[in-house]
Amino acid sequence: TNINGIYCNGEPDIEGAKDEHVAAKTFARKMGLNADGMDIGCYQYDLCVFCKSAKLVDDTEHVYKLLSFIECLEDAIDMYPESVDRLSNKINKFNELIESNVSAKVIQSAEKRLLNEGRYLMLQDSASVVVQFL
């Protein structure tokens, strides 16, 4: 799964966002970040909820990562109040996705883990994470 706990094949299938991914890949190639033929996967984690390639995993670890990611988006509202509508829409869509596709037991377990351990390690610094999505 990717950083937000969603399984993906790395090929974005998001209406209107393909150009952004192509631009990121071009930039990576120019910077030498895809040496030896390695390709970068999709980095648009905030758009997973709109992507046909993304799949939710009914597992505590992955839901824990997604709940951590949602908290980062919530922090972004405080940091970027001008983006409240866009961020709230994404947060609501992610929450709807969880509620409609994940068992109550897994949600409770992931919420407990988030409460006891804090955010997933790679998502602990909200500021550096949310800047990528604005």
Mean pLDDT: 83
Spatial strand arrangement across the major sheet: 1-2
Q: Give the tally of β-strands.
A: 2
The number of distinct helices, counting runs of at least 4 residues, comes to 5
Task: Please describe the biggest sheet, giving its number of strands, its sense, and whether it closes into a barrel.
Answer: 2 strands, antiparallel
- Sheet/helix structural class: mainly alpha
Spans where pLDDT lies below 50 across 5 or more residues? none
Distance between the termini: 22 Å
Helix content: 40-55%
Shape verdict: globular
Radius of gyration: 15 Å
Question: Secondary-structure element sequence?
Answer: EHEHHHH
The fraction of residues assigned to DSSP E strands is: under 5%
Q: Please, could you describe this protein's structure?
A:
52% of the residues lie in helices and 3% in strands. The chain is mainly alpha-helical. It is built from 5 helices and 2 strands; from the N terminus they run E-H-E-H-H-H-H. The model has no long low-confidence stretch (mean pLDDT 83). Helix 2 packs across helix 4.
Write the layout of secondary structure elements.
Elements: E1 6-7, H1 18-30, E2 55-56, H2 60-79, H3 84-101, H4 104-117, H5 126-130
In summary, what is this structure?
Helices cover 52% and strands 3% of the residues. It is built from 5 helices and 2 strands, in the order βαβαααα. The protein has a two-stranded antiparallel ribbon.
